Amino acid sequence: MRKIFYVVAGLLIVSGRMSITAQQAVVDTTNVYELNEVVVSAVQARRETPVAFRNVSAAELRENNTGQSLPYLFTQTPSVVVTSDGGNGVGYVSMRVRGTDAGRINFTVDGVPVNDSESHGVFWVNMPDFASSVESIQIQRGAGTSTNGAAAFGATVAMQTQRPRLEPYFEASSAAGSYGTFAHTVRGGTGLIGNHFVFDARYSNVQTDGYIERARANMSSYYASAAYYNGGTMLKFQTFGSSEVSYQAWNGVDSARLRTNRRYNSCGKYTDENGVTRFYDNQTDNYWQHHYHLLATQRLTDALNLNVTLHYTDGHGYYEDYKAGAKYAAYKLPNFKGADGKEQKRTDLVRRKWLQNDFYGALARLTYTRNRLQAVWGASINNYTGDHFGRVLWMKTVEAMPQPDYEYYRSRGEKLDYNTFLKASYRLSNALSAYADLQYRGIDYRITGTDDKAGDIDVHRTFSFFNPKAGLSYERGGSHAYASFAVAHREPNRKNFTENGPTAQPTYETLYDYEAGYEYTGRAFHLGANLYYMDYDNQLVLTGKISEIGEALTSNIKDSYRMGVELSGGLRLAPWLDWSGNVTLSSNKIRNFTEYVNTYQGGKEQPQTVNELGTTDIAFSPNLTFGSTFDVHWRGFTAALMSSYVGRQYLDNTSARERSIDPYFLSDLRVGYAFHPSFMKEIALDVSVRNLFNAEYESGGYIYDTFINDGKRVNQLNYFAQATRNFMARLTLKF
């Protein structure tokens, strides 16, 4: 694959340099760019849209993109918190906005849903260096505007792939740094050929040994597009994808060991026949994913544009792990009798848990802009099928293996997701605009087969959601004020169904989102404030209850909310020095929360202890976050000092300090210099120092178990320790 893309990139450059003609000098650049903007205009907010959002430009993405996964480029966005399994921001990472996880954030690429249809999650390990092919990213906080795919219960992240470049180009960058981290990217394009065609391609490879022991990762990705432009017509095909192999680090570090060896990784641990502790070498996650988009945009009139997108995503992969002391019964096998006639209930084994899925669909968007009215109609239909199955590759008691690659469970998830929306902004006066947004979303979800934990499963649920939104926006001079109200609904994910057992089935969640904000932009400064109140009905949370199949039960709780204020601002301190910053102060609560705790007395299981805790904090929802950036640009020299603070995060919904993540403060420093020699466009060198002040901190964690034993509360906590001071250097060549 790597050789193929080096060749492709080279061919693109050669063909591009041969294609430049005098005719290209009269190309309507604005027309080409506007046709691309139509693709995302249906899901991205505009300045007069009454929602809180931040646009991240391609320049900002390129400047900060040194190999870490995409969420690490959002750390200076209000209310955003990121964490990494491997500790250095490469591989498995996750992000939260206003305390809500990725499963409650809507992600799209050119309007196409990215969230997994069943888990609702987004796995950035499958999109390494995607930032190198992105033109812009808009992060809407709250319910946002109507879009496609998963419900936006905390934020919407709308990504737009790169615009066409009318001139040929070639770029190569290589970065190297701490913990054996290397990131290499080559990208190029033909420019406009024959006044109609543009071709672009990229190949990237990111490798690391990880901060956490053995948390190595090897990830490759590509992007390629071919576009045709003719007057008011754009036809574009793009494909992007990746392959990844990463050693598992998702267990975290237990709280006791955190003080003595914060880099410890328990994944793959076993004891050999000589009693020596070892770690299984192939305790890895392996996944391949390929996306295909066909986009057509047609300007029907000066006021009316139509965009249609067809898409298909193929994904398949597995994780392999060594299970020490596994019960035969858990793998649907009888206990084994050895040569001595003694019955054995457990053995060591190696298993693979597979996922093979297909996701495809169609989107249509019609945009009308005339005088005071801007309206968008959109519709989409998407279908998902996912096969989940597990196989035992090896068993210590060879005689107990019924067959090679013994399959012990298989199930299929099928999901049909369709929606239509109409949203419009109407300028009531020169300063005042009204916004309305109506969406209908329907879901048909089925799970059949056998599950590794639940046994036989047969789930069939349908949902119909109506999501209205409305608001007002006032803009005069440099001032902009807005207020809005939105309703959003979210269906349960796969685990909510499979791990709750056949009787305790969950229902959907509802969000009522109230937002109001003010922004002022002056010649040398800008400031903004956004107030929000997010009222949840039937939010799904962990309560400590155990389902009838022995798994942690997610229960719908009636009453919970998030409320806060987000402040942001920026100031030009000198022609060469800028400062920007943000602060979020919030309160995130569950009313009338009841906790259920497993209880044992004298080694015997007792009824669960029930604790009526009243109003408690929602897990992973810090009451205070802030970010600050000092940015220097002087001739070819650049520097940035980026700092962030994240307040205390509770690991469960009990507000128990002993089950929480301590607050932390971080600073990163980046310095660089760019040369512009006569024989090429640019040579740039930059060096980043992450965690400048060498803080020892944890940004994520979970409760492995908590119970009461003989009257004493026992907490088994695991944390995701993050890297101490580390470095990354990057060289970029542009032709």
From TrEMBL:
Species this protein is from: Tannerella sp. oral taxon BU063 isolate Cell 2
Keyword Ligase: no
Residue intervals of the TonB-dependent receptor-like beta-barrel domain: 238-692
One matching Pfam family: TonB_dep_Rec_b-barrel
Any one GO molecular-function label of the UniProt entry: siderophore uptake transmembrane transporter activity
Annotated protein name in UniProt: TonB-dependent receptor
Protein family according to the UniProt entry: Belongs to the TonB-dependent receptor family.
Keywords of the record: Cell outer membrane, Ion transport, Iron, Iron transport, Membrane, Receptor, Signal, TonB box, Transmembrane, Transmembrane beta strand, Transport
Membrane topology qualifier: Multi-pass membrane protein
